[in-house]
Amino acid sequence: MTRKAERTTQYIIETVAPIFNKYGYVGTSMSHLTEATGLTKGALYGNFENKEALALAAFQYNRTILLKKIDGLLTAEGDALAKIESLINFYRQYDVFTLPIGGCPILNIGVDAQHNNSLLAAAAKETIKEVEGKIALVLENGVNRNEIKIPVPPLQFAKQLYTILQGAVAMGTMTRDRKYLINTAAYLNYLVSNEIKK
Prior knowledge:
The protein is an all-alpha fold. 79% of the residues lie in helices and 0% in strands.
């Protein structure tokens, strides 16, 4: 692939990623995509085999943005408690962070693709597992370093923590009320400082 072709492909992905995330796989029309990119249908399909391939590339792009942020929080300097607290505090502003990419890609694509795009649904599920694994690793390292205590295995705790965070994202998205994120983060900070702090 030439440099120009690579730049065109990247431009398409970056431009359509928020559209697929906002409208979903079925809800995103070719006219949405051609209007946003300024390219013809033929030009789009000259870079991608079909709409499904383009949607998957768009999800991978949004997923990378999100995982890069989460990785940065969970690998920063500090002990396990500080890392978990920084992740929780990130979710206070999660709606602001995800606004440029059309909202939460895990929630939007994960729900939308369940019954109409098995590849996208699988990619969203894999992303959930990856985030849970990253949280579990921080917890496990924290237990091993005697920084924190948790009453259940690290992966189980990570899944519950992430479930609560994503639940707040879902409720905040559906009601358009940021208080779900803010109040959930405050509760989780209280829970973490009282339940797992040594």
